[in-house]
Amino acid sequence: MRRAFPFTFSLLPFPILLALIGTVWVGLASIPLPAPAQTIYIYTDEEGVTHFTDRKPVTEQEVKVQRAIAEPQGLLDVRMLGPEDDPRWVFHNRVQGPIAVRVSFSDSENVVTYPELPEVFVLPASAERELLTIGPLDERRSWRYRLQTETVLGDPGARHAPNRPYRAPFASGESFVIGQAFGGAFSHDSPTSYHAVDISMPIGTPIHAAREGVVMDHARWFHGSGSNRDYHGQRANFIRILHDDGTMAVYAHLDYDGVRVHPGQRVRRGQLIGKSGNTGFSTGPHLHFVIQKNRDMALVSVPFEFESDNGPMTPHRGMRLEAR
């Protein structure tokens, strides 16, 4: 799953500079961050006072629930520092794991940069760095430029090297059928999801970590599902866990408010992390599970094995998967 984060800056000729940030878009593969949101509980007490709260009240009165409305957002914040005739650009990584940012010119005239572009930068978790200084090559002439960037989750240097097969991502003793496996014709047809599995299970099934790591980001306030990939693909609740080898596990289509961990939290193998659901680009309740890495500025899925009583097992469609 690739998280593309294209945006542009355009500047007017010296000495007047103007920065414009364009749209940000992402695919299901990247599962974008949601805007801050929460559920609101509304009730009227015995004295006729109406209360609005984000905590579920303990009351015998009728409680109305107003669900949060989340919208996808990007991975990167960028701002300009310094005077407009001597700009410096600061990049802020919004997630609790590394991202790679490619910065280049789509158009420029009489411009010099440090470092020279194009360039790929790797920003650590939550890092804020001044990455780029731009100015006129000849100060006697006007100058202009248009920057473009692309942002991909993960460090390009990551290498998939688990020390054991992955645990089935649900409670010990439970078993569920794999409805779609590697190369599934319905939706596992791109590099970001080719090596994914869809595990059929009822909404609300406890989800457990298949491997230890750090929660990189998540989404919890999306609700609803559908078959429009462009729209619903960006609106699945998910948890992304960064492993020690730099690869990332994605647990997607979780239930509304079905996340039980927070960004930056380290989780152990087998730990409860959420509840399954049917959100985003989905035609029925299931868990979408995939391991991804950044390969040359593209987010790709990688093959993996589950553990079983008979040793490592490559998942396939129709297999009944059991958690040990």
Q: Can you offer a commentary on this structure?
A:
The model is unreliable at 1-36 (pLDDT under 50). Helices cover 1% and strands 43% of the residues. A hairpin with a 6-residue loop joins strand 7 (76-81) and strand 8 (88-93). The strands form 6 sheets. Strands 14, 15, 16, 17, 19, 20, 21, 22, 24, 25 and 26 form an 11-stranded antiparallel sheet that branches. Strands 1-13-9-11 form a 4-stranded antiparallel sheet, with no helix packed on it. It starts with 6 loop residues before the first strand and ends with a strand. It is an all-beta fold. The longest helix is centred in the last third of the chain and has 4 residues, at 229-232. The chain is globular. It has 3 domains: 7-33 and 72-153, Immunoglobulin-like, CATH 2.60.40; 38-66, no CATH class; 175-322, Glucose Permease (Domain IIA), CATH 2.70.70.10.
Termini distance?
Answer: 28 Å
Q: Which CATH class of the largest domain applies here?
A: Mainly Beta
CATH homologous superfamily of the largest domain? Answer: Glucose Permease (Domain IIA)
Largest sheet: 11 strands, antiparallel
CATH architecture of the largest domain: Distorted Sandwich
Low-confidence stretches are: 1-36
CATH topology name of the largest domain: Glucose Permease (Domain IIA)
- The number of domains is 3
Give the number of helices: 1
Determine the fraction of residues in helical runs and give it as a percent range: under 10%
How much is the radius of gyration in Å?
23 Å
Query: Can you give the mean pLDDT?
Result: 82
Structural class: mainly beta
Fraction of residues in β-strands: 35-45%
H-E order: EEEEEEEEEEEEEEEEEEHEEEEEEEE
- The number of E-state strands comes to 26
> Outline, from the CA principal axes?
globular
